[in-house]
Amino acid sequence: MRIRAFRSVSLLAGVALSVAGLGAVSGCGSHKEAAGGDTDGLADRAQKVAAAWDGSAAAAAWRAGYYPMGETVQLPRGGLRSQSDKQAYESRNFILRGELPSTGPKDGRVTWTKDDSLARPLVDADESYRALADTHIGGQPHLTVTGAKLGKMTLPTRERIRL
Prior knowledge:
This protein is an alpha/beta fold and about 160 residues long. The protein has helices at about 5-35, 40-55, 55-65, 85-90, 125-130, and strands at about 5, 65-70, 95, 105-110, 115-120, 145, 155-160. The longest helix has 28 residues, at about 5-35.
């Protein structure tokens, strides 16, 4: 898996998060006044969000140094062939008409342009299929899956931070 670090994306994301954070902080006082001084609900919500972060897959990925900034599911080369295919993909209407690999490597390798790399766990083919395919709806456009194989992809990512 070849990953490219886009500094401009990182910079823009950092600026956007800073602006959002400043807006949230500056809004806290006016929220307190509007709520009549009662911010317990807001504090409880913040506590729950912080607790949900600990132990989450996103927190583990953040600590491991892998920060995808784009879609981790990508369409095949050439994309979708028709409006019906696009509708089927967006509605997650898939039919499995083939065998999915039952075994594969445990980990994949994320590689940055400076030859730095990181091992990350792979999701097996069946779990990946189930995450993409919601349910088959008869009479609606669908995509037929005939198999799967391990491949490589490129996506923008934040540079790895060494802790």
